[in-house]
Amino acid sequence: MSTTALTHHVRLLAGPGHRHDEILTPAALDFVGRLAGAFGERRRELLKERRRLALRLASGSPLDFPMVTSAVRDDPTWRVAPPAPGLTDRRVEITGPPDRRMAVNALNSGAQVWMADFEDATAPLWDNVIGGQLNLLDAIERRIDFTTAEGKEYRLGENLATIVVRPRGWHLDEEHLEYGGRPVPAALVDFGLYFFHCARRQIDAGRGPYFYLPKLENRYEARLWNDVFVLAQELLGIPRGTIRATVLIETITAAFEMEEILYELREHSAGLNAGRWDYLFSLIKTFGHRTDFLLPDRAKVTMTAPFMRAYTELLVRTCHKRGAHAIGGMAAQVPGKDPATNQAALATVRLDKEREAEDGFDGSWVAHPGLVPLCREVFDGVLGARPHQLDRTRDDVEVSPADLLSVRRISGPPTPEGVRTNISVALRYFAAWLRGQGAVAVNGLMEDAATAEIARVQIWQWLRHRVIDRETVEEILDDEVAALGAEYPWALVEDIRALFERTALTGELPLFFTPDAYTRHLVRRTEAQA
Ligand SMILES: CC(=O)SCCNC(=O)CCNC(=O)[C@H](O)C(C)(C)COP(=O)(O)OP(=O)(O)OC[C@H]1O[C@@H](n2cnc3c(N)ncnc32)[C@H](O)[C@@H]1OP(=O)(O)O
Ligand SMILES: O=CC(=O)O
Ligand SMILES: [Mg+2]
Relative to the alpha carbon of 335, which ligand is closest? Predict the structure, then answer.
């Protein structure tokens, strides 16, 4: 785009940062402004609709596969676009924030795909947002190599994972950019900046602009993304259908519209992913007021629970019926230093990947480079030389609304350890997030925004149904806060406690903890720069 055509003025409300000017060029900001101008209002309406539906469900409306779209589901003829270059074989996908060191490690990890994550694994400090974009650009330009002060070298190898970027969800704003007097939707910032700088470069390198789309709640949100893609391609003169996007099915309402979501995005779709952690969070959040949705300790809600199996089985069936990849989710165990714990963690992850591969998934996620060989070995065992198993149509799978919602079959009271673990994990994750780190290992488990959300909403749910009492929670909270006080400055610990109290101990459950924490703690606005 030529600079003479710049008309969509985006106000920059952040101070200068190292090399930020390479990303925040006038033309790139204008491009983001065009997207915000074209889609900002629709996104606001869709967020309002989320709240309306939540109220309807809370007041007893049933959740079912939509009647109005039965023609889409019953039409056997349509398929999604064929796999794009670099996305045919996706047996191992590593995920992580687009931090410079992790970018090099992930790209070299031997995984087929690197999911560069601005959502669950990133705390959206402005410098993380723009630094992440710079790291992606540098990686694609092969100028990301560096040596640490200790002399450790980070160099890109020859066989690199395909980059798939996960922008932030529709619910988040980017407060450092304003368009028309409002913050720009964070999703359009992450998508727009990456697309503007890297789409053409990726195509020239024989890949393409690829995305993971998080936290969608329904087909209208998928349609919005599709329209964003169509306009973005048109504005940059990139052929329509070049983008590919894999949608995370990680909300309970989206599970009822998997086929419709593929249909809306069919010319850009690269499949669906079973985002198990946000899915559980969504289930608790949506039905938290109902006693038949009371869940036991998080550790007891595994992927073999009948309602979780119904969800993953339906996902594989839906994808393969439409020629789309089905990608498995994240086992939380990460390798650690202790050999015995390590062995147990690897065994748990292996079982998880084996079940996914046998169920028909075409690949799966790992959170750590140490898990890449394991995941590859498991999927190699099932796929062999085939790049995927799209031909496994899973016609045997029949899933009803009751199967997806029959949570009661695994319910039971929380244990004292379960309560303490949730409080401790939420606090420890908040501590990391407020300091700009979006994923951490806590007790051998990967914790990110999605798992932290489960921790806080379970406390809220248990309190609401009086299966635990407020005094017990306050006592544990005091203990855990005191433990944090030994590790972190007291002012930070007070912020963490207050954040937990505002998001877990209130009558009205906040939909996400991130907007509150972001606005209060991560935003550093200055006067407009231009
Ligand atoms: C619910 C969901 O959405 S899942 C997807 C979102 N969540 C994620 O992506 C989490 C991804 N994983 C991670 O962020 C990390 O593995 C963590 C934070 C859990 C643990 O990280 P660490 O404490 O650094 O682990 P550890 O010390 O074992 O790391 C060893 C090396 O592996 C690297 N590494 C660890 N995980 C990753 C990763 N996911 N990608 C690339 N490199 C990684 C580390 O950078 C480190 O490299 P170095 O030796 O060059 O310094
Ligand atoms: O994004 C993945 C999830 O499990 O949540
Ligand atoms: Mg998620």
Answer: 1
